[in-house]
Amino acid sequence: MARLRVGVLISGRGSNLQALIDAAADPAYPAEIVTVISNRADAQGLAHAAAADIPHHVVAETDRAAFAAAADKVLKSAGVELVALAGFMRLLDIGFVEAWTNRMVNIHPSLLPSFPGLHPQRQALAAGVKFSGCTVHFVRVEVDTGPIIAQAVVPVKAGDDEDRLAARILTTEHRLYPLAVRLFAEGRLRIEGDRVAIAGAIAPDIAVLNPTEVLTGLASRGH
Ligand code: GRF
């Protein structure tokens, strides 16, 4: 069976790109990464593409429309069917977003719609939430909006700083993005307004409290 042709847009480290490459290394995975585009020549992720023999391109145009035109050309010539943004840090041209509507996904390290935009882990810590996580969603013109495909939850722990929370979330990103791309590739996603229905999806039958238990002996009145 032909695999879904995925183009990945990156700006930096590329660990989510690597997770997708690793998933696609299994011939049974229904998608393959056919091209990688970075807007930065120094993006570490380009080396991941090179190591996996995936064609990769630097599209450094700073003008939004010029970037869109150049990126679109690369994606089209590679026969891309799904665009996956993976740590892509530039705002996209509206026409480009519209042209790829429902065929472009993004991963964001928060439980959207909470904490869109920059420094979502810092925002989560400042808000004092007890859980955070990551979200894969279809891309719309407003940054970090669009129908949600899948989410993963992690606890915020006492003593977390931005880096520790980001690292905990990132390990779930590396599981969630390949899962979401697989669901798309299998044709199991149906967008109904702002919501995504997933054929055959099973939600976990759990509820988690944080804190999960309170140690006895620490309580003292007035504190
Ligand atoms: C990830 O946390 C992703 O959710 C966010 O940017 C980060 C990119 O990391 N959009 P990497 O480049 O995939 O390692």
- Tally of separate helices: 6
Q: Any ligands, ions or cofactors bound here, and which?
A: 5-O-phosphono-beta-D-ribofuranosylamine
Radius of gyration, Cα only, in angstroms?
19 Å
- What is the spatial order of strands in the main beta sheet? 3-2-1-4-5-6-7
Residue share in helices?
25-40%
Please, could you describe this protein's structure?
By secondary structure, this protein is α/β, with parallel strands linked by helices. The protein is 31% helix and 23% strand. It has helices spanning 15-24, 45-51, 64-77, 94-99, 120-127, 162-185; strands at residues 4-10, 31-38, 56-58, 82-85, 104-108, 131-138, 148-155, 189-192, 195-198. It has a 7-stranded mixed beta sheet with strand order 3-2-1-4-5-6-7, with helices on both faces. Helix 1 (15-24) runs parallel beside helix 6. The longest helix is centred in the C-terminal third of the chain and has 24 residues, at 162-185. The protein is globular. The N and C termini lie far apart (63 Å). The model has no long low-confidence stretch (mean pLDDT 96). Bound molecules: 5-O-phosphono-beta-D-ribofuranosylamine.
How would you summarize this macromolecular structure in one to three sentences?
The protein is α/β, with parallel strands linked by helices and 223 residues long. Helices cover 31% and strands 23% of the residues. Strands 3-2-1-4-5-6-7 form a seven-stranded mixed sheet, sandwiched between helices. Strands 8-9 form a two-stranded antiparallel ribbon.
